[in-house]
Write a structure and sequence with these properties.
Chain lengths: ~325, ~290
């Protein structure tokens, strides 16, 4: 029995890692490829989660909905909605240095949080939306416990398929001329402009693609939980976790983003298990000490290993190293 | 009467809130112009200042006004320390890396406040303060104090920047860092001075927010957006612009309640920020655009 519980827990963890890996991949397009600072990840996540929830749930009194679309329509809708929110922000802010985008994205996340909380017509307010359909949950031939396990495993399979598809597409873009151009813009904006690249438009593309992936991550989360409430995600913590995942894993490296998601999420959940065992009077403080440590972790990574666990692959890297060795 | 009510319930609270924003925005604008990055931990530094003052008020039993200088000095020291430990070694890297580090610092400062002082709301003093009546204008003493303190602090800073040697050095760094370095200005001292000033003003803004409302661990983070909106509205690098911007954002937030639901008060600063970036990114008083 213990064994089954552990397996369930491992699958649960893996699903979350998959969802966070999608967010980190989205951020990698923005930060790793294009050098754009998005501090409003939780906002795009929420837009995706709520859009998919509204599109796929049954009719409920007092809010729009009742479309009962299949889940994949909801997920595509989530990506479109997140992209639609990203567009005006990017349009206004990407003409300037990324600092302005950082501030504006904090702002848009804050506004989205306000809308989610107060527009009951859209989001059902503080109660949130429940009864979100989850694909592949019916296994009538199996016993109850194994049926639960099977439904969890089936969802994990779906998350993995989505993640692998996203990874393959992003990796392909990374090695394509588009990816090289984005990195050129990131590393030397002036030179890229002189080569005739439309810097603003390309940045806007990267910002929108990344945000769409974040929206998809939100949709996957909502369908996994079957419900979404304003409290489901702490905006700062969610945003910050994704950042540390990407920086630790290696910005500019898609495998690094996924690895970082796994490492950071495992550390984060394990520390939660550890602090939950503390007596209640310390447990609340321990939560904030964990936040402090995750902030400190970012400072240490930025200082001592800014390239992350898996550094960005550079063309001609190996050759440069070999010729360097010849000279010494 | 109608007009007086508008002034009493919206414009005066707006000016007070605006003064608080202005104190923070001046620091943001200085860091933006001299060190050349957006400092996202600014709001949480203000929270820290407010809670240090709370510790002094409850520990020594003095009034918040006496605790203010102590909070200013302590927060300035913390700001310099943060710069030395965390930001200094990122100076050679792209500036955006420091912006990211400051986001982490914001989380760390807030975590410290939450561990040391908890997450409950606190006040400097209990009880309701009734406003005094000045020819129909109803103003509380602490509101006058906030406005005067803002004018005195910012006025003093302006004098320092225009008259003293180091103030001129700071402005030179802001105008043209390469030329300033060539003429022998000590970069390290300028950076330290900037942090002392920004940290001190942060504490003042936090203390006055705490004095006029209440102290919460999220109070500073929620001020971050209005403070940036104020700095950009006034023009980055312009002290008087930050004050003007702060007052406009504060009054606009209070007046917005007349038109939009009060939950969206915080959206006003964001709207101003985007509007300025769209229409006039240099701000009202011709600041820099990074």
């Amino acid at each position: 029995m213990e064994y089954l519980g552990l397996l369930n827990y491992a699958i649960f963890m893996a699903i979350f890692i998959g969802i966070y890996a999608l967010l980190a991949l989205g951020l990698n397009i923005q930060w790793g490829f294009a050098g754009l600072f998005n501090a409003g990840i939780a906002g795009f996540f929420a837009v995706g989660a709520y859009t998919s929830a509204v599109l796929t749930t049954e009719y409920a009194d007092g809010r729009i909905g009742g479309f009962e679309m299949p889940f994949f329509v909801g997920w595509i809708g989530a990506m479109l909605a997140a992209a639609l929110v990203a567009w005006p922000i990017g349009k206004i802010c990407l003409r300037f240095r990324s600092d302005y985008l950082a501030i504006a994205s904090i702002g848009i996340a804050e506004i989205i949080r306000l809308v989610v909380k107060s527009e009951a017509v859209l989001t059902n307010g503080a109660r949130g939306i429940s009864g979100i359909p989850r694909p592949a949950t019916e296994f009538p031939t199996l016993a109850q416990e194994t049926a639960y396990l099977a439904s969890q495993a089936a969802y994990l399979a779906i998350v993995v398929v989505v993640l692998v598809a996203a990874y393959v597409l992003v990796e392909r873009q990374f090695n394509a001329p588009w990816g090289r151009m984005m990195r050129a813009i990131r590393d030397n904006e002036g030179a890229a402009k002189a080569m005739g690249k439309d810097v603003e438009f390309r940045r806007l593309q990267a910002f929108i693609f990344g945000s769409a992936l974040m929206g998809l991550g939100g949709a996957l989360f909502a369908h996994f939980n079957r419900s979404i409430t304003p409290e489901a995600i702490d905006p700062m913590v969610a945003t910050f976790l994704v950042w540390i995942m990407l920086i630790l894993g290696g910005s500019g490296n898609n495998r690094g983003a996924i690895l970082g998601a796994a490492v950071v999420w495992i550390i984060w959940s394990m520390s939660e298990i550890a602090t939950d065992r503390l007596p209640t009077e310390y447990a609340i403080q321990a939560k904030y000490i964990r936040l402090f440590l995750i902030g400190l972790m970012l400072q240490l990574v930025l200082r001592f290993r800014p390239e992350g666990l898996l550094p960005e692959p550079l063309r001609g890297d190996r050759r440069a190293k070999r010729s360097g060795a010849d000279h010494t | 009467m109608e007009f007086l009510e508008l002034i009493n319930f919206y414009v005066i609270p707006g000016i007070v809130l605006g003064s608080i924003y202005a104190l923070g925005a001046v620091g943001i604008t200085l860091i933006f112009a001299i060190l050349r990055y957006a400092h996202l931990a600014h709001g949480d530094l203000a929270t820290l200042g407010a809670f240090i003052a709370l510790a002094v008020v409850t520990g020594l039993g003095v009034s918040p006004l006496l605790a203010l200088p102590i909070a200013i000095i302590a927060t300035a020291a913390v700001a310099v320390g943060i710069d030395k430990v965390f930001y200094e070694h990122l100076r050679e890297r792209p500036k955006i890396v420091t912006v990211m580090a400051s986001l982490g610092i914001a989380l760390m400062i807030r975590a410290v406040v939450q561990v040391v002082w908890g997450v409950d709301t606190e006040t400097y003093s209990r009880g309701i303060v009734r406003p005094e009546n000045y020819f129909g204008l109803r103003i509380r003493d602490r509101e006058i104090l906030t406005f005067i303190a803002m004018i005195v602090l910012v006025g003093g800073l302006q004098l320092f920047l225009t008259r003293s040697k180091w103030g001129k050095a700071m402005r030179a760094m802001s105008d043209n860092p390469n030329l300033a370095l060539l003429s022998g200005i000590d970069n390290k001292k300028v950076v330290m001075l900037t942090w002392i000033i920004a940290g001190g003003l942060c504490a003042a803004s936090g203390v006055f927010l705490g004095l006029n409302t209440e102290l919460k661990s999220m109070m500073g983070w929620q001020m971050l957006l209005p403070m940036f909106a104020a700095a950009i509205l006034g023009g980055v690098g312009r002290i008087e612009g930050a004050v003007l911007g702060g007052l406009i954002v504060g009054i606009a937030e209070e007046l917005s309640v007349l038109v939009i639901p009060s939950e969206y008060k915080a959206a006003m600063a964001f709207a101003i920020l985007l509007f300025m970036l769209l229409v006039r990114p240099t701000g009202l008083l011709k600041g820099k655009v990074l």
